[in-house]
Amino acid sequence: MSTPRGPVSVMRSRDVISILIAGEGGVGKSTLVKNLITGSYHPQTLTVGLNVETWTYEHGGRKRTVTIMDAGGEERFQFLLPSWARGTSGCILAFDLGRFISFLHLPDWLGIVLGAMKPDRVLLVGTKADLGNDREVPGEHAEAFARDNGLIGYVETSAKMSMNVVEAFQILLERINIDN
């Protein structure tokens, strides 16, 4: 039997956080996650099923690892969402600012997510804030949706411009860290 050599790093369970990113297909969830991890814009194809990524950040002088469960947004995967959401500490609920229909479907997505967590663990994120005049969802509508449903809040992001991507995840993680 061999003996391990060198220092052994033990990661406490509080140092690993799992979050879910959910929303309709094509809203930019995977592109948002890729931007978070790489710091650059990489358009992604539709996620089939579930894609799992990890991101490391520092909080309170400790490195924390975030497991990001990027759920495919096609209707055929919605029945799997409750099992993917169980055991996660929070959720980014995303919609496309350029597709009003993705905003209209938010109550359905939120209903599924709320089967696994409280609304104060969900952050509403509008993607593709760089659209300018092609925008279909006013910020006031999204803010009202977040407020009326007791969500953490609302953030507009652009993976293309690296706008508010890290900040959105930090807002969610700060809420999770307050509760842990």
How would you explain this protein's 3D organization?
There is one protein chain. By secondary structure, this protein is an alpha/beta fold. It has a single domain (13-179), classed as P-loop containing nucleotide triphosphate hydrolases (Rossmann fold), CATH 3.40.50.300. It is built from six helices and six strands, in the order βαββαβααβαβα. A six-stranded mixed β-sheet has the order 2-3-1-4-5-6, sandwiched between helices. A hairpin with a 2-residue loop joins strand 2 and strand 3 (62-71). Residues 1-13 have low confidence and may be disordered.
Cα gyration radius (Å): 17 Å
State the major sheet.
Answer: 6 strands, mixed
Shape: globular
Beginning-to-end CA distance, first to last residue: 39 Å
Strand order of the largest sheet: 2-3-1-4-5-6
What is the CATH H-level superfamily? P-loop containing nucleotide triphosphate hydrolases
Our estimate of the beta-strand percent is 15-25%
Overall pLDDT: 88
Topology, element by element:
Blueprint: E1 16-22, H1 29-38, E2 50-59, E3 62-71, H2 81-85, E4 90-96, H3 100-104, H4 106-113, E5 122-127, H5 139-148, E6 153-156, H6 165-179
Parallel strand pairs: 1-3, 1-4, 4-5, 5-6
Antiparallel strand pairs: 2-3
